[in-house]
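Table S2 (continued). Query chain:
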Amino acid sequence: MIRKLTSDQLATLKKKQLGKKHPARTAIEQMLPGEAIEITRSSFSWKNQTPRLFTNAISKKTNSRFVVSVLLNNAGWVVERLPDGEAEGVDDAEK
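Corresponding output:
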């Protein structure tokens, strides 16, 4: 549906500029420690890729760590952000 907006309607709408980032990446970047999100396959349709592509890139640039799990019904993924300072499968000697 497309409709014209008046200047009053435009002023009351909550909006932001459209970016070039994938919506799933934006959602992952905005996660706080301890939060989790579910990403459906329909919202992430890159062939032969998973949201782990985004979490690995974000982890390299920041101190954020994530766990990506696939749903058992194969409908998508769950991305969990680990609390700061906690890395899964990393010994204290490796830190």
